[in-house]
Amino acid sequence: MPSPRPRRLRDKVIAIVGLGQIGGSILKRLAPHRPAITLLAHDRDRRLAGVCARYALWVSHLEDLAQEADLIILAIPVPGIIQTIDALGRIGARRNPKPLLLDTGTVKSVVAKAAARRRAEFDYIGLHPLAGAEQGGWDAAQAKLFVDRTIVYTPPRPRREHEARELIALLGGVPLAMTADAHDRYVAEAIGLPHLLAFAAQGMGGENPLRAGSWASLTRVAASDPEMVAGFLRANAAAQRRALRTFERQLARLKTALGARSEKSLVKLLSQRQREGE
């Protein structure tokens, strides 16, 4: 299905900070809409300036983004998002209307708090595309990455929500609104916990010739960038610890069932968990 044409975002300047898999995919998806929209790109790896020249205007300094962009999308790890929000706030001039700041980080509460400190300079809406794979970087970016994939936006903000929803539509995504706190609780279970389990399993070490399909499924996301994973796990530490405690209770019940005289209790427990997951 072709991407819709920009309406509210027509004649806007959209800047993308971070040209990894997510930021690069956003850039590649939006590029066909030029010149109806103007695209700016920035990354700490200046070698990407030549690579992305066919998609956007390269901007070397954040000062220029703060002055020129109507929408600024931060597609970098969570700690970097918070640092960049503060940097943009310090250098950004107060404009009317204010630029809309968006991020694609895996957790939202800490980012929303950082953005709230800069509400005089920016409006803020967080995005979380439920897309991508453990292989990152510009080479993993693809224009169709977000097509038919859920993109969470938070918080719902009536004055700027229409812009965020149109951006999601241009990316081919399906919008889902929720609060930052609810989002982070869900992330701790659905994303954080699988990453912790994958890295823990990888840490078992040792030679095992039977590690094939099932093991590969368990450990797949352990190929993710450790710095990126550590960033969103630490930023969501309280919710993540609660999810781990819940999981530990489930493991304890399975361990107890393994020690029973009969396999009936284990079959019953496994059957219950199977039904709960349907």
In short:
With 278 residues, this protein is an alpha/beta fold. Helix content is 47%, strand content 13%.
Lateral strand order in the biggest sheet = 3-2-1-4-5-6-7-8
Question: Can you summarize the main beta sheet?
Answer: 8 strands, mixed
Could you say which structural class the secondary elements and strand pairing correspond to? Answer: alpha/beta
Order of helices and strands: EHEHEHEHEHEEHEHHHHH
Estimate the global geometry from the Cα principal axes: elongated
What's the overall average pLDDT, rounded? 92
Estimated helix fraction: 40-55%
Q: Could you list the spans in which at least 5 consecutive residues all have pLDDT below 50?
A: none
- SS strand fraction: 5-15%
Number of helical regions: 11
Rounded to an integer in angstroms, the radius of gyration calculated over CA atoms is 21 Å
Tell me the distance between the termini: 30 Å
- DSSP E strands, number: 8
